[in-house]
Amino acid sequence: MSSSSAAAAAKPPMRDALVAAAFRLFLERGYEQTTVDDIVALAGVGRRSFFRYFPSKEDVVFPDHERCLSDMTAFLAAGGEEHEPVRRVCDAARLVLRMYAENPDFSVQRYRLTKKVPGLRAYELSVVWRYERALAEYLRGRFAGRPEGALRADVIAAAVVAAHNNALRSWLRSGGESDASATVDHALGYVQSAFGRPSVVVPGEQRSEDVIVLVSRRGAPLWRVVQELESALGRG
User: Fold this and answer.
1) Cα–Cα distance measured from residue 136 to residue 156, given in angstroms and rounded to the nearest whole number
2) What is the mean pLDDT of residues 58-80?
3) Contact (CB, 8 A) for 88 and 2
4) Which of 45, 93, 129, 140 has the smallest CB count inside 10 Å?
């Protein structure tokens, strides 16, 4: 390989180069003091190249959200009736976590920058809203025809986003040092336990550690409670 081709191979793609240049300037000068012209000058490209990848300066701060939103939408669309819907949207939220965890240093830098710039916080909220809408639309489809299906879908979608973001911010505040997956799993567990359908126990496959929670009407006769328990155990 010639020295020129090796240099070309080592050079980051233009989109990545623009992001790197932008964050270098944001950290050195501040976000408000950095212009698009400053970014393209440092990256060694023209203004047209910048706007080919990013509609605005705000978008360069969140370069990966469009891809992640597309991946989430495709993941939800691929779900079938066999997928428990609340678990499915919790798994979809984990795709966002994976995006952040792919580059912890960048994610922490962005978090600290966003905290300082009110305009970026507002932009971030609009991005979060799009994730929530994607989750809600999927759930609305799964709950169609059920009593208050749309309300249930919107509440669960908001709960998933709130739980995920609470855990994500905790991880970012740690500087990306804590266990992101464990933190998010713990938070989403609250959503799953509050809104999800209990796992179905297949008769003949119970294990000693299986736990069955039975909910019965107050005042129900004992024989009815026993009958419902036997049915849950697959013995009816």
Assistant:
1) 8
2) 93
3) no
4) 129
The fold adopted by the segment(s) 3-57 is: Arc Repressor Mutant, subunit A (1.10.10)
Q: How confident is the model at residue 73 (pLDDT cuts 50, 70, 90)?
A: very high
Distance CA 97, CA 38 (A): 31
Per-domain boundaries in the chain: 3-57, 62-195, 203-236
Inter-CA distances, 41 with 25, 69, 96, Å: 11, 30, 32
Task: Provide the H-helix boundaries in the chain.
Answer: 3-10, 14-29, 36-43, 47-53, 57-61, 65-77, 85-102, 104-116, 118-142, 149-173, 180-195, 222-232
pLDDT at 206 over 60: no
Whether residue 175 has pLDDT greater than 70: yes
pLDDT at residue 6 greater than cutoff 50: no
DSSP 8-class letter at 45: -
Question: Residue 209: is its pLDDT beyond 50?
Answer: no
Residue type, 138: Y
| Three-class secondary structure of residue 58 per DSSP | helix
> What is the rounded CA–CA span in Å between residue 139 and residue 60?
31
